[in-house]
Amino acid sequence: MRLLRAELTRLFARRFTKLMLLAVVAALGIVGTVTASETQRPAPAEAQRAEADAAAAQAQCQQAPQDPNAPPGDSFDCDQITSGDYLPYVLNFRDQMPDLLLMLAGLLALFGYLVGASVMGAEWSSGEMTNLLLWRPERIRVLLGKLTAVAFGVFAVGVLLSGAWLGTIWLIARYRGEFGQLTEGFWISLGLDAARGLGLALCVALVGAALASLGRRTAAALGVVVGYLVVWEIGARIVMSMLRLLPDRYFLSTYVAAFLLKKVELYECEVFGENCDIVVVPWQSGLAVVASLTMLIVVAAAWSFRRRDVA
Q1: pLDDT tens digits, residue range 171-191?
Q2: In degrees rounded to 5, what are phi and psi of residue 137?
Q3: pLDDT in tens, 85-97
Q4: What is the pLDDT of residues 57-109, one digit of tens each?
Q5: Nearest by Cα to 237 from 225, 223, 252
Q6: What pLDDT, on a 0 to 100 scale, did the predictor assign at position 83?
Q7: Could you tell me if 294 and 259 are in contact, meaning their C-beta atoms sit under 8 angstroms apart?
Q8: 3-state class of 81 per DSSP?
Q9: Helical segments of the chain, H only
Q10: If DSSP states are collapsed to H, E and C, what string results for 141-177?
Q11: Phi, psi (rounded to 5 degrees) for 245
Q12: Cα→Cα distances 31→26, 103, 111, 200, 204, Å
């Protein structure tokens, strides 16, 4: 317990952690300020005029001649025309809060990876890891203590920021937007969205710290993620597209998206663009891939830390 408390104190005392936390808060503040300035609740007369314009547009759409050669699924549904199309932007808490939580999940994942990698990398490059092992020679216990501190720190930051972000959007919707229909199912779904985003941030933070421990440098963790994104997520995707392949199931981003978005639909074809079937990747598969990869990297870092010289 003393080791964990000491690691948490060191984590939040580091200048980089404070700067990253400030950057995340600043990003959320900018988004919140822009949202509050853009949204406006329409006046009753303005809402009535928008409803009249939408009704006239629907009538005109229904009277327009339809293309007889158009496929059945390509015809435009006139009922999609609503009064909202004729009103300025209005923040709808029910419709937009899940997307705003998704943005927060991305920021927390970036925060967790950079902070986790920098903490572990700094321990190695400064020689503090060697000094710590003189005081506490249990290597695995020391490594797990540091990883636990990173995970707990990211979790605490994520919970606080999630609550603050939810409260901020609630206030904007209260005074300048609208709430929509907030049912019990909505709140349960929103809580699960927040939990998945926080879980992803914890996994990413552990991966960043473990990779930095494997490479003994912060740059090693950064190099791995940049190399993966450039070589595989971008380069391999371009090459496979040129070969007329649809390789989405072989990319980690597919499973991360499935975990965050509850599911991802993939199109698998016998021939490129022909005879396609829809394959659904559920969030459970995304969770299994993300958790397994995290566990594999953490175990590799523990094995390396136990066997390698720390001098």
Answers
A1: 999 999 889 899 999 999 999
A2: -75, -5
A3: 777 788 999 999 9
A4: 777 776 766 555 544 444 556 767 776 677 778 899 999 999 999 999 999 99
A5: 252
A6: 67
A7: no
A8: coil
A9: 2-13, 15-38, 44-63, 93-125, 128-135, 139-176, 184-215, 218-228, 237-242, 252-261, 283-307
A10: HHHHHHHHHHHHHHHHHHHHHHHHHHHHHHHHHHHHC
A11: -110, 155
A12: 9, 10, 17, 22, 23
What single letter denotes the amino acid at residue 192?
L
Dist. CA 58–CA 49, nearest whole Å: 14
Rounded CA separation 105/206 (Å): 15
Q: What is the pTM of this model?
A: 0.86
The answer to whether 207 touches 113, Cβ cutoff 8 Å, is yes
- Contact between residue 93 and residue 72 where contact means Cβ atoms under 8 Å apart: no
DSSP letter string over 113-127? HHHHHHHHHHHHHTT
Distance CA 188, CA 103 (A): 19
Q: CA-CA distance, 133 to 36, in Å (whole number)?
A: 51
Tokens of 213: 């421990």
Number of Cα atoms under 13 Å in the Cβ half of residue 73: 0
Q: How far apart are CA 246 and CA 275, in angstroms?
A: 13
- DSSP-assigned beta bridge partners for residue 263: 282
The residue whose two tokens read 């980690």 is: 252
Which amino acid does the sequence have at 14? R
CB neighbour burial string for 218-248, b if at least 16 within 10 angstroms, e if fewer = bebbbebbeeeeeeeeeeebeeeeeeeeeeb
Contact 25, 111 (CB under 8 A): no
**pLDDT tens digits, residue range 41-55?**
877 777 778 777 777
Residues near 95 by Cβ (< 8 Å), separated by ≥ 6? 180
